[in-house]
Structure prediction request, 417 residues.
Amino acid sequence: MSPSADRATVADARSPLLGRVQAVRAHSLALAATLGPEDQAVQSMPDASPTKWHLAHTTWFFETVVLQPHAPGYACFDPAFGRLFNSYYEFLGPRHPRPQRGLLTRPSAGEVLAYRAHVDAALARFAATADAAAWDAAAPLLELGLQHEQQHQELVATDILHAFSCNPLLPAWQPAAAAPALRLAQAPEPARWLAHPGGVVAVGHAGEGFAYDNETPRHEVLLRPFALADRLVRCGHWLQFIEDGGYATASLWLSDGWAAVQQQGWGAPAYWIAPDDPRAPDGHWQVFGPHGLRPLDPEAPVTHVSFYEAAAYAAWAGARLPTEFEWEALAAGGALPEATGHAWQWTRSSYDPYPGFRPLAGAVGEYNGKFMVGQLVLRGGSAYTPAGHARPSYRNFFPPAARWQCTGVRLAREDAC
Prediction:
């Protein structure tokens, strides 16, 4: 076989992974397409990051984790970008402070796009020319890089939504969509309960396809009989909680949650606009989202609530939050409606390592393991989660007071079956 034929065969074998990387990279740019340079530079709170930073950081990941170690002769676009766009990898050097990412007016949005193009071209060259050993070493990191970028695509959405919610104009970041019909008199359908007999069940990644290290190793847990609601809690249900004084009843709340209610002035989910707010047209509840301000839809799943709010609502409803293993036991068998595509679902499980957990080797070992303290696990996937990114064993995690993510509630209860 001729050398050119050999190269063609190699390119064909590598094209599926490269094509997926390129598709994910293109989707990031599509998410930012409606945002101007000013929009992409804003940082509305320390936990959020500018869109421009997300676009650069995901590029830095491919450059630093894939190209620099595995592509001989690769030339960095700008060595200074390492300090600017490293997130939390101590192994990879110093970083610009996270709360100050909004101060990075330079590089410009245009320079970030040039940086992305430089790295994308280098990735394509690497796929075409790398020897077998280099490609085999880099391929798992390319997969990790595209999965990492998909995580940041969700953050692009939730971070810009928070930023725009701070703007008195309440601008939309996605094209206008038809507003839902206002159905103030319509009560949401009550949930049905999906029973599980409990017993010993296997949880964690089963070994097929991609998974993060925090989903491993697969192991067995013992569950008591339980039941989960067949749907997420609806906005109409939450409105009943509000009207019944849920945010003013200390006995429903965990101590830290009640302190957060007092300190933050919570009286409704994030992005809800009360009828007496001057921004609420016609004196009805409104919800701010990617399409701007829209009337509250009682049948829509409630989103942007903290773990504390989720636990208080569950107490008010005479139920509880599921453990992550209860959630997975039903979701893994396909028996859990609305498992993904609506909201990440708070669980009552602390974000802890599985028995026998070992971080990945090298810098990517910092990806998950060092955050396994003070966080709660969420399961499922939201309306902002890229298609194909979620799976039943996926373990998302956030601190209990977080509300800017698309987080919702599924109830659980003990069951006598």
